[in-house]
Amino acid sequence: xxxxxxxxxxxxxxxxxxxxxxxxxxxxxxxxxxxxxxxxxxxxxxxxxxxxxxxxxxxxxxxxxxxxxxxxxxxxxxxxxxxxxxxxxxxxxxxxxxxxxxxxxxxxxxxxxxxxxxxxxxxxxxxxxxxxxxxxxxxxxxxxxxxxxxxxxxxxxxxxxxxxxxxxxxxxxxxxxxxxxxxxxxxxxxxxxxxxxxxxxxxxxxx
Length: 207
Prior knowledge:
By secondary structure, the chain is an alpha/beta fold. It contains eleven helices and eight strands.
Protein backbone atom coordinates (compact mmCIF):
# COMPACT_ATOMS: atom_id res chain seq x y z
CA UNK A 1 0.00 0.00 0.00
CA UNK A 2 1.28 3.46 -0.90
CA UNK A 3 1.28 6.76 0.93
CA UNK A 4 0.57 9.96 -0.98
CA UNK A 5 1.17 13.41 0.46
CA UNK A 6 -1.17 16.13 -0.79
CA UNK A 7 0.92 19.28 -0.83
CA UNK A 8 -1.81 21.87 -0.49
CA UNK A 9 0.57 24.82 -0.39
CA UNK A 10 0.62 27.79 -2.73
CA UNK A 11 4.18 28.33 -3.93
CA UNK A 12 6.89 26.27 -5.57
CA UNK A 13 9.24 27.17 -2.73
CA UNK A 14 6.84 25.83 -0.11
CA UNK A 15 6.25 22.67 -2.13
CA UNK A 16 9.97 22.03 -2.57
CA UNK A 17 10.60 22.57 1.12
CA UNK A 18 7.79 20.21 2.14
CA UNK A 19 8.80 17.57 -0.39
CA UNK A 20 12.37 17.69 0.87
CA UNK A 21 11.15 16.92 4.39
CA UNK A 22 8.80 14.05 3.57
CA UNK A 23 9.93 12.46 0.29
CA UNK A 24 11.78 9.56 1.87
CA UNK A 25 8.64 8.53 3.76
CA UNK A 26 6.06 8.76 0.95
CA UNK A 27 5.56 7.12 -2.42
CA UNK A 28 3.62 9.83 -4.26
CA UNK A 29 4.13 13.59 -4.18
CA UNK A 30 0.88 15.35 -5.02
CA UNK A 31 0.77 18.95 -6.15
CA UNK A 32 -2.59 20.14 -4.85
CA UNK A 33 -5.00 21.98 -7.10
CA UNK A 34 -4.38 25.40 -5.46
CA UNK A 35 -0.64 24.99 -6.03
CA UNK A 36 -1.08 24.11 -9.70
CA UNK A 37 -3.46 27.03 -10.20
CA UNK A 38 -1.25 29.50 -8.37
CA UNK A 39 2.18 28.45 -9.59
CA UNK A 40 1.36 26.73 -12.87
CA UNK A 41 2.85 23.58 -14.34
CA UNK A 42 6.35 24.85 -13.64
CA UNK A 43 5.70 23.59 -10.12
CA UNK A 44 5.27 20.07 -11.49
CA UNK A 45 8.58 20.32 -13.31
CA UNK A 46 10.35 21.64 -10.24
CA UNK A 47 9.12 18.80 -8.02
CA UNK A 48 9.92 16.12 -10.61
CA UNK A 49 13.41 17.50 -11.13
CA UNK A 50 14.02 17.56 -7.39
CA UNK A 51 12.60 14.06 -6.83
CA UNK A 52 12.90 12.08 -10.07
CA UNK A 53 12.50 8.78 -8.21
CA UNK A 54 9.07 9.69 -6.86
CA UNK A 55 5.67 9.48 -8.54
CA UNK A 56 4.54 13.05 -9.15
CA UNK A 57 0.79 13.56 -9.07
CA UNK A 58 -0.71 16.72 -10.59
CA UNK A 59 -4.16 17.28 -9.13
CA UNK A 60 -5.59 19.09 -12.14
CA UNK A 61 -9.22 18.13 -11.47
CA UNK A 62 -9.81 18.35 -15.21
CA UNK A 63 -13.44 18.82 -16.23
CA UNK A 64 -13.01 19.35 -19.98
CA UNK A 65 -10.32 19.05 -22.67
CA UNK A 66 -8.99 15.92 -21.02
CA UNK A 67 -6.40 14.98 -23.61
CA UNK A 68 -4.99 18.50 -23.89
CA UNK A 69 -4.71 19.18 -20.17
CA UNK A 70 -3.27 15.76 -19.40
CA UNK A 71 -0.74 16.10 -22.22
CA UNK A 72 0.44 19.45 -20.86
CA UNK A 73 0.94 18.01 -17.37
CA UNK A 74 2.72 14.90 -18.58
CA UNK A 75 5.09 17.00 -20.66
CA UNK A 76 5.80 19.06 -17.53
CA UNK A 77 6.84 15.93 -15.65
CA UNK A 78 3.68 14.56 -14.04
CA UNK A 79 3.31 10.80 -13.72
CA UNK A 80 -0.36 10.93 -12.73
CA UNK A 81 -3.11 13.49 -13.33
CA UNK A 82 -6.68 13.75 -12.09
CA UNK A 83 -9.87 14.03 -14.09
CA UNK A 84 -13.15 14.63 -12.26
CA UNK A 85 -15.58 11.75 -12.19
CA UNK A 86 -18.43 14.15 -12.97
CA UNK A 87 -16.77 14.94 -16.30
CA UNK A 88 -18.04 13.42 -19.52
CA UNK A 89 -16.75 9.97 -20.44
CA UNK A 90 -15.02 11.48 -23.45
CA UNK A 91 -13.01 13.77 -21.18
CA UNK A 92 -11.75 10.83 -19.15
CA UNK A 93 -11.05 8.86 -22.32
CA UNK A 94 -9.09 11.79 -23.77
CA UNK A 95 -6.89 12.02 -20.69
CA UNK A 96 -6.31 8.27 -20.82
CA UNK A 97 -5.28 8.58 -24.46
CA UNK A 98 -2.65 11.14 -23.49
CA UNK A 99 -1.52 8.98 -20.57
CA UNK A 100 -0.97 6.00 -22.83
CA UNK A 101 1.03 8.10 -25.27
CA UNK A 102 3.32 9.19 -22.43
CA UNK A 103 3.24 5.87 -20.54
CA UNK A 104 1.70 7.64 -17.56
CA UNK A 105 -1.60 7.34 -15.69
CA UNK A 106 -4.97 8.94 -15.01
CA UNK A 107 -6.74 9.00 -11.66
CA UNK A 108 -10.47 9.74 -11.65
CA UNK A 109 -11.47 11.85 -8.65
CA UNK A 110 -14.96 11.05 -7.40
CA UNK A 111 -15.46 14.27 -5.45
CA UNK A 112 -19.03 15.43 -5.98
CA UNK A 113 -20.17 12.14 -7.52
CA UNK A 114 -23.38 10.81 -5.95
CA UNK A 115 -23.09 7.15 -6.98
CA UNK A 116 -19.39 6.67 -6.39
CA UNK A 117 -19.44 2.88 -6.67
CA UNK A 118 -20.97 2.86 -10.16
CA UNK A 119 -18.80 5.70 -11.42
CA UNK A 120 -15.68 4.05 -10.05
CA UNK A 121 -16.37 0.96 -12.10
CA UNK A 122 -17.07 3.06 -15.20
CA UNK A 123 -13.87 5.05 -14.73
CA UNK A 124 -11.83 1.90 -14.51
CA UNK A 125 -13.44 0.62 -17.72
CA UNK A 126 -12.48 3.90 -19.39
CA UNK A 127 -8.85 3.28 -18.51
CA UNK A 128 -8.24 4.99 -15.18
CA UNK A 129 -5.22 3.60 -13.34
CA UNK A 130 -7.19 3.95 -10.13
CA UNK A 131 -10.03 6.04 -8.71
CA UNK A 132 -9.94 8.41 -5.78
CA UNK A 133 -12.71 8.29 -3.20
CA UNK A 134 -12.40 11.88 -2.08
CA UNK A 135 -14.12 14.25 0.28
CA UNK A 136 -12.88 17.80 -0.19
CA UNK A 137 -12.01 20.29 2.53
CA UNK A 138 -15.44 21.92 2.37
CA UNK A 139 -17.20 18.58 2.80
CA UNK A 140 -14.89 17.57 5.64
CA UNK A 141 -15.78 20.79 7.46
CA UNK A 142 -19.48 19.90 7.56
CA UNK A 143 -20.91 18.67 10.88
CA UNK A 144 -20.98 14.89 11.13
CA UNK A 145 -18.49 14.18 8.35
CA UNK A 146 -17.20 10.60 8.59
CA UNK A 147 -14.54 8.93 6.45
CA UNK A 148 -16.23 5.54 6.78
CA UNK A 149 -18.66 6.21 3.91
CA UNK A 150 -15.76 6.59 1.50
CA UNK A 151 -14.12 3.42 2.78
CA UNK A 152 -17.31 1.44 2.38
CA UNK A 153 -17.79 2.70 -1.17
CA UNK A 154 -14.20 1.84 -2.01
CA UNK A 155 -14.65 -1.71 -0.76
CA UNK A 156 -17.90 -2.11 -2.71
CA UNK A 157 -16.47 -0.81 -5.99
CA UNK A 158 -13.95 -3.61 -6.31
CA UNK A 159 -11.46 -1.53 -8.32
CA UNK A 160 -8.03 -0.10 -7.42
CA UNK A 161 -8.64 3.00 -5.32
CA UNK A 162 -7.20 5.71 -3.13
CA UNK A 163 -8.84 7.51 -0.23
CA UNK A 164 -8.53 11.23 0.50
CA UNK A 165 -10.43 13.25 3.04
CA UNK A 166 -9.51 12.93 6.68
CA UNK A 167 -6.69 10.39 6.47
CA UNK A 168 -4.62 10.77 9.63
CA UNK A 169 -3.05 8.76 12.45
CA UNK A 170 -6.45 7.81 13.86
CA UNK A 171 -7.97 6.66 10.55
CA UNK A 172 -5.00 5.21 8.64
CA UNK A 173 -5.56 1.67 9.92
CA UNK A 174 -9.17 1.72 8.72
CA UNK A 175 -7.98 2.88 5.30
CA UNK A 176 -5.58 -0.05 5.11
CA UNK A 177 -8.22 -2.52 6.28
CA UNK A 178 -10.65 -1.27 3.62
CA UNK A 179 -8.21 -2.43 0.95
CA UNK A 180 -7.21 0.94 -0.46
CA UNK A 181 -4.18 0.94 -2.73
CA UNK A 182 -3.19 4.49 -1.78
CA UNK A 183 -3.78 6.55 1.36
CA UNK A 184 -3.74 10.30 0.68
CA UNK A 185 -2.78 12.50 3.61
CA UNK A 186 -2.70 16.27 3.44
CA UNK A 187 -3.12 18.31 6.60
CA UNK A 188 -2.06 15.38 8.75
CA UNK A 189 1.41 15.80 7.23
CA UNK A 190 1.85 19.41 6.13
CA UNK A 191 0.00 20.73 9.15
CA UNK A 192 2.09 18.75 11.63
CA UNK A 193 4.77 20.33 13.78
CA UNK A 194 7.18 17.80 12.25
CA UNK A 195 5.94 16.79 8.77
CA UNK A 196 8.70 14.22 8.33
CA UNK A 197 7.80 12.45 11.55
CA UNK A 198 4.10 12.55 10.70
CA UNK A 199 4.77 11.00 7.30
CA UNK A 200 7.06 8.39 8.83
CA UNK A 201 4.39 7.31 11.31
CA UNK A 202 1.66 7.12 8.67
CA UNK A 203 3.89 5.04 6.40
CA UNK A 204 4.72 2.70 9.26
CA UNK A 205 1.01 2.19 9.92
CA UNK A 206 0.55 0.92 6.36
CA UNK A 207 3.09 -1.86 6.64
